[in-house]
Amino acid sequence: xxxxxxxxxxxxxxxxxxxxxxxxxxxxxxxxxxxxxxxxxxxxxxxxxxxxxxxxxxxxxxxxxxxxxxxxxxxxxxxxxxxxxxxxxxxxxxxxxxxxxxxxxxxxxxxxxxxx
Length: 116
Hints:
Elements: E1 3-8, E2 11-16, H1 18-24, E3 29-32, E4 36-41, E5 52-59, E6 63-70, E7 73-80, E8 85-90, E9 97-101, H2 105-115
Parallel strand pairs: 7-9
Antiparallel strand pairs: 1-2, 2-3, 4-8, 5-6, 6-7, 8-9
């Protein structure tokens, strides 16, 4: 598991695991529910071109951790190959989407979408 997701009031809090905090240059992301468009599990996203890394870590075919920009779309990735990626689409935030490896990705997908 690369991340933990929790909820506090009307905020979603994403915390990368200990080592991933270092490589992603991110300690914690706090996102208001109003800025979440939706969530989906997308196992195929691992095989797509991520864009330019700015900053972060990319071990091709294995681990993506940090900010990636493709055209005008800025995404925060923290997922390892073999994890089920949860894609959270955002609006009015620093990132357009979060691609996260979490335990019980389908459960979080349903939970997030039901909170909106």
